[in-house]
Amino acid sequence: MSSFATHTLKTFSIGGIHPPENKWSAGQKIVTLPIPKQVSIPVIQHIGAPSKVLVNKGDVVKVGQLLAESSGFVSANVHASVSGKVSKIESAFDSSGYKRISVIIDVQGDEWLENIDLTDNLISNITLESAEIVKKINEMGIVGLGGATFPTHVKLSIPENKKAEYLIINAVECEPYLTSDHQLMMEKSDQIIVGTRILMKALKVNKAIIGIENNKPDAIELFSQKLSGPSDIEVVALKVQYPQGGEKQLIKSVLNREVPSGKLPIDVGCVVQNVGTAFAVYEAIQKNKPLIERVVCVSGHDLKNPSNFMVRMGTPVETLIEATGGVPEGTNLIINGGPMMGKSISRLDVPVTKGTSGILMFKQTVSNHNQYQACIRCAKCVSVCPMGLEPYYLMSLAQKNRFDEMEAAYPTDCIECGSCSYTCPSHRPLLDFIRLGKSEVNQIIRQRNQR
Minimal CA–CA distance to 218: which of 206, 229, 226? Predict the structure, then answer.
């Protein structure tokens, strides 16, 4: 039990749910997974434009070497996670089920670029200036590791007419099952704190807040101890309430500021970064290490050894599952990410990428979708929507292809948390139809803006 009284905990004010947490891999130390014999590294592992391949078949590469460079402002560099020979550059399946241009490397040894610091020594002194930090984060291919994979340098490039007042570190990890961020906090707290201060310097802000849900009392206590006394970084304990980790919900929880419809966190003076991103920033700036590996939680029903692994990008998902004892009998659904916002994968030879926070396995009895029924107008979906939307109405409009009308009901505000579908007693696929409608409305908006 947490030492923080419930009445002192902060949370957002609209909607939310509390699904079973099932954090079965909590407390499992991060295990470095052996390097596979071959990796497949997609050149798009981020939101934005695909990166442009720089290597050729037959090239020999080292760990950390640039494989593909960003092709625009909203894009990200991609680096070699292993050393060896480029055997192919081809379209290969990724976890989304689509084929992406990928660099296939046959592993030979484990030779790193000479300028990467592989020691465990903590480097606290930040020598680079703001613009230099942003430039290096861009060069190192850092993206948001909470799942969205938005290029970090873009978030740190504040428009001239805006001003950042607060950096908020998202250490919530509100999705059930996932424990990768939690365990990273327990093992790399000092590095995360330095990474937070690097981000503060990049943004030129004097105050940072680390928001942690109260189901991680050990992490709250650890960071509170390390940041005790007068500090430029505050630790805030949050009520366990999904989707507490949504940017707008987190800002409301810790600062009581509301991001208006159609606006961004910077419009209320905030920049939100994931705790894993803060660690990656530390390694990039202080150790010259590109984003070539990350912590991945592997968990699920009847799994022998739920685990947290440090995994090189491009490692096949099946390698992680084998390390936990293999796919449990009766499994019929495997998800990349969390159960609420993650996506199912149909094959196990797809690679771990920058956005892979977890691999979850579910039994047929848990994952089977019931045949959905007519809406009974109970309004449960409305009561749990953290954005104050009317999911039943949005689904109805999407079903009828009434996308012009749907735009007026703010589908673009939907954060796709899945709370509506989770709570619906008629098992209606609300989020599936809202996603469809949201995509169509975004296309309408783009076409209108191009006229």
Answer: 226
- The domain limits of the chain are 6-24+117-287, 380-450
3-state secondary structure string across 416-433: CCCHHHHHCCCCCCHHHH
- Report the candidate in 182, 236, 208 with the shortest Cα–Cα distance to residue 21: 182
Give residue-wise pLDDT tens across range 71-103.
999 999 999 999 999 999 999 999 888 899 999
- Which contacts qualify for 291-294: CB closer than 8 Å, 24 or more apart? 291/79, 291/140, 291/141, 291/142, 291/143, 291/354, 292/63, 292/64, 292/79, 292/80, 292/81, 293/81, 294/145, 294/180, 294/352, 294/354, 294/356
Q: How far apart are CA 97 and CA 336, in angstroms?
A: 11
The domain defined by 6-24+117-287 folds into Rossmann fold (3.40.50)
Sign of CA dihedral 128, 131, 135, 141: positive
Rounded Cα gap, residues 142 and 135, in angstroms: 11
This prediction's pTM: 0.95
CA 272, CA 255: separation in Å to the nearest integer? 12
**Per-residue pLDDT at 346:** 87
- Counted residue by residue, the chain has a size of 451
What pLDDT digit, counting tens, does each position of 118-144 carry? Answer: 999 999 999 999 999 999 999 999 999
Query: Cβ(385)–Cβ(14) under 8 Å?
Result: yes
Q: What is the DSSP string of 242-295?
A: BTTTSHHHHHHHHH---PPTT--GGGGTEEEEEHHHHHHHHHHHHH---S-EEE
